[in-house]
Amino acid sequence: MHVAVVQRASDIDSAANRDSIAAQLAALGPGDDLDLVVLPEAAMHDFGAPDHDLAAVAEPLDGPFVQLLADEARRIGATVVAGMFERTDGLPFNTLVVVGPDGELRRTYRKIHLYDSFGYKESDRMAAGEVEPVVVEIAGRPVGLMTCYDLRFPELARGLVDAGAEILVVPAAWVAGDRKLEHWRTLLTARAIENTVHVVAAGQGGDRYTGHSLVADPWGSIVDEADLAPAIIRATLAAADLAHARDVNPSLSNRRIRHRS
């Protein structure tokens, strides 16, 4: 699977975001032979200040943001995953949308673990999604979806792997702060090592967020990593590499403690 990870810094102007996303994605095209393009959490519209009304700016799944992703997915010829705020009758969902290369909305994942931590309370502004791992097939590979704070809950990653995921995709707006970059890198590589999966993480950059979008292989090695600036990093995720890692390190099959429903 050929992937492109798009790091950017969103604004609280949704129309300006759409324009800047289109300009950034112009660097990608059908000649790149991509299967998957991943944008960060809140790519549609930044979280803004704690009193910024996200319900007022949330969009439906057939709104202008998803339409932009559909246009770009068709143009590039790849599946696009990106984060948005999804309109409801009450608090919006923090939603990942998966748009296929035909421009059709294939799947959504509504963030399960809301960021009520480090002095912030996302649950004041968002509704949590149902506790159900979401795995979607992309280019013949099963891909599990997580969003930002979900990364701190290894049981979700393991649930995705138990549902068949070989790749974890993690769009994020990982807030900057003391030790936060160390947490980001450590948790991403840990999820790769303990589950013997590829991890593809697209983060918001700029002044407020940690940036450092990266791709990790099933050994936990970082294949490529951005810094804070807008960037597109690329990687090839070979199924043979995952199979080899699981053959050498069969920790998943060696488990003796398993979840029982």
Automatic annotation (TrEMBL):
Key word Hydrolase present: yes
Lineage: Bacteria, Bacillati, Actinomycetota, Actinomycetes, Propionibacteriales
PANTHER family, per the entry: DEAMINATED GLUTATHIONE AMIDASE (PTHR23088:SF27), NITRILASE-RELATED (PTHR23088)
Family: Belongs to the carbon-nitrogen hydrolase superfamily. NIT1/NIT2 family.
SUPFAM superfamilies, per the entry: Carbon-nitrogen hydrolase
Record domain CN hydrolase: where: 1-239
Record has Hydrolase as a keyword: yes
CDD domains xrefs: nitrilase_3
Protein name: Hydrolase
Domain of life: Bacteria
GO MF terms held by the record: hydrolase activity
Keywords: Hydrolase
